[in-house]
Amino acid sequence: TGVPRCGASLHEPNKALRIELNANANCIWQIQRNANQTIRLIFSHFKFAPSSSCETESIKVFDGPSTESPLLGQVCGDTDAVPMLESSSDSLTFLITTSSTAFTRNFFVYYYFFSPGTKTENCGGQLTGPNGTFSSPNYPAPYPQFRYCVWHIESPKNSKINLQFQDFFLELDRNCQLDFTAVYDGPTTDSGMLGKVCGRAQPTFESSSNMMTVVLSTDDTNSYRGFSAQYSSVLLPDPMKPNITLTCSSDSMRIVLSKPYLASLGFREAHLQLNDPSCRPVVTDSVIFSFPLASCGTIKKDEGDSITYTNTISLAPAGHVITHQKNTEITAECRMQNNETLEVIYTTTNNAIQNLVSRGRYNVSMAFYESDSFSKPIQYSPYYVDLNQTLFAEATLHSSDPNLQVFIDTCTASPQPNFGSPTYDLIRSGCNKDDTVVTYPAFENHGRFKFRAFRFLRSFPSVYLQCDIVICDSSSTNSRCARGCISRHKRALAPYTWKTNAVVGPIRLKRDLRAAEHSESPSEVEAAKTPNPQQYNFYTLAFVVCISNILIVVAVVLKHHKHQVGYRYQNVQSS
Question: 9-114, what's its fold?
Fold first, then answer.
């Protein structure tokens, strides 16, 4: 595009940048425009070299036209948030520096100009009380572009917050770089992020205190229905019990200990460590360990019917003198299994917690793709196909543990979304039952297969697919995933580790679409071609994922007519 490979001077009213840098980079981007407006800059994805620190690799943002301007903020590899920075004028500068480590760094950043205090910026707010509801701007109509909405939730003291999204429909991309919702465990976006979500889902979050922060950020490409959410307060455990919580997700383990409880044991937060001593806690009103499942010395074990992640907090008493009169360790275990209960189980000795167990669930989604490159998901519904057309399906596990394998155990077709009779097997117990099915080798956190649109479609107007998806430890040679196709008499000998169920569809024949168009009157056809101003002529393909008896709806939406993308992408590379 003629843009410098390292840094640039930007004058457009909004732009998104995909930045790829290698070692020893020192690149400056300057944003400036005579608009008498403020600049909002969002780093929605950043990946630095492993084990880097703020001293060796960082993004520095300056409130003005050069790096001599006041420092507005800094982003590093351990930043636990989606950084958003705003200028005080119509110019802003950011500098990315990298170390000499050979590694390809990736960043996604976008900016736009806006006028603070205007009606278009009026979203978010303060929510107080034991329960409440809130929704995205314009819900259920499509949300507006270039919005950054922040809701601060505060429940009564001695309680924590349970947040549930009953309806959630945002633009989908792999890293949630475009439109996203981020949830933070405290009163601000500096409190530690509980998660970032996009696409279509029904996520739930739980805070460790009586405060939570929710952010909605949108760009100017696709706008969908947004979300509707409700929160409720949950009383904290009996004060007579130790105040400690363990939360397990598909990505991370989070342990929160109260300072009074530690003090009652004679421990200081400065003397706490995990199996990997370099993993240190964040100390605020509480002492918080938050880390990816497969890091900080966590020990993973395949239990047959579950996968467990275990780490140990070593508690060195004040003065560094370790006694044996009280337990000096707390064992925290995340147990990933098919159970919707998220209860915390305490085992105590001498009034001190010895073991802490919490149950969690893996996050799995499923989609059709245009080709065997699996790069472009089908984003409309119903999915109209030709008879004998090859269809490509992918199940994706969203987890920070790289040593997991996704296995497609069974896939069944049915004209009914509830999968009543009749049904047709594509895959059964890992064995291909339809002669057009081809299963791809396991690839990272994906399970993939292809098949041809089958004769089933000739007899029924719509067809749905239901797949049983198994998650295994990729290092296990005796797991259900490793055994592949299992004959009928051997099925009982191959227990699965973690299993979920996914439904995609409907699939319909293109000839039925053409027949429907010809059967309509001219006025009906013309009306069908006229865009609906409320729906923006959207079509929806819903992927229904039932995980541990909780129905999670994941969907992506695509405009029926081609749309203009409000900003251009740049691929910026450094040699």
Answer: Jelly Rolls (2.60.120)
